[in-house]
Amino acid sequence: MDKDNFITFNNEIYSNNNPILYDIVNKLENIVNDLNTNKQIDIIINNLKNIINQINYIINDNKKNTDKIAKDINNFITNANRIQIKKEKFDNGDKYVGEFKNGKAEGKGIYYFKDGDKYEGHFKNDKFNGKGIYYYIDGDKYKGEFKHNMRHGKGVYYSVNNCKYEGDYRNDKREGKGIMYYENGRYEGDFKDDKKEGQGIFYYNNGDREIGDYLNGNKIGKHVILHADGNISSKNY
User: Fold this and answer.
1) Which of 119, 173, 200, 206 could bond 194 through an S-S bridge, CB–CB 3.0 to 4.6 Å?
2) Total-model pTM
3) CATH tag for 161-237 (out of 3.40.50.1820, 2.60.40.1930, 2.20.110.10, 3.30.1330.40)
4) What are the distances in angstroms from CA 146 to CA 7, 115, 131, 170, 192?
């Protein structure tokens, strides 16, 4: 555990205040003692820090609403007790480290694949769900939204060959509006089934722009080229 994330209590400062609050602080102390031994729950520890700061502020400022803060903290403890932080290794060699709820991966966690891939982010009902980062063993990386273990929503895919895609995903494939960056320029336009499809514009590094339609990743029909020097030409595909 990082030193900055280690927290302790001094219960004596609470002994002369609301007894309910004092009891809750004792419960928090027990939770923190357990959390300090686990390196995967920095976020929960930071939440606890914020709660403790609230308590100290109320006491130091001689406020009279300790009953309310006690209730809020008790609700936090109730919800926290429903979440387990643990490691689980599967028969296929994969491993999960993170939050569990009702026996399933839920919340934040890291899933290590036996082949070297890794997913780090949000889970729901045992699946990648929400924002996360998927690291591929070949060096590629996807950062964005997931749904039911698939890339779905907005995301950015970084490739080791200096290409990058930024835009919409649906059911694990590029689909919708997006931008694909290449060594010689970038394409902005429509995608379908992981390929350029629909209308798009290719911006070349030399300043030229090519406007036209695509089908199954290939140029089709008439494309208009707006040259950097002001000339205009066209080409049929």
Assistant:
1) 173
2) 0.66
3) 2.20.110.10
4) 34, 20, 6, 9, 18
